[in-house]
Amino acid sequence: MPASLLIPHRTPMRLVDTLLSVHEGGGVTESVLPPTSMMADGEGRLDEVTFMEMIAQSYAAFKGYMGLVEGKPAGEGFLVGVRRLEITGRAYAGDRLLTSIRTGASFGGFAVVEGGVTRGDETIASGIIKLWLAEDGR
Amino acid sequence: MNALRRGIRASAAGDIARTGKETVVRRYRFAPGFIGFSGHFPGNPILPAIVQVCAVVSLAEEEGGKALRLAAVRSAKFLSPIRPDEEVSIRYRRRVDSGEDICDATLSVAGKTSAAFQLRFAEEEIPG
What we know:
The complex is a heterodimer.
Chain A (H helix, E strand, L loop, with lengths): L17 E6 L2 E6 L18 H20 L7 E11 L9 E11 L2 E10 L2 E12 L5
Chain B lengths: L2 H8 L6 E3 L3 E7 L19 H16 L4 E10 L8 E11 L2 E10 L2 E11 L6
Antiparallel strand pairs in B: 1-2, 2-4, 3-6, 4-5, 5-6
Helix pairs in contact in B: 1-2
């Protein structure tokens, strides 16, 4: 399902294209950023901070999907914390990047999420983030 | 340099300054048309957390005069939203801890801390 239907982020800050699959407590998204992305330099290399946002937006897409199933609109979400996000690889515009997320814990509008970004067989970033999502569709 | 980093550098509202021996400080003002607000969110612009991190990396590169690779975000707390046209003070201190290049950074608005994080830099390139 297109992420644009699930999250309020819009181009150029929407960094996730598609929610590919959903499983209990998590899911997988796909991103292919164009060379014109504000995150890509003249050689097409993506800024390392991109991967942190991909994890956050992937969780938002997962929650958006779950909300859609329940008839709720996509709400805004905010990255409120990060723990041990390691960036061990690089990626370029045009690369197919898959982001896997799993809900570690959630309480109220807060969630602790484990996530990883892969390029082919290589994990290029992984870590734990904390998000707050508006639950009233704002 | 990507468009986001160009936009961040263009948003600097003062020169790079030092307080004490190791702390670097610079003020920024992100205008409503700043690219980092685009799409985040329509009708409710908030400076994305990754832009805040990117601004620190960009400032450290500018101050140090060489490219850095963000190798890790060891920890981060984003405490309050930053809106367009607010004056943001970015402050960081770099230190070596067990051979690692660590950067402790804060962003503040009107004297109140809006974000604090600890980054790890690497100068080496990743092969491939």
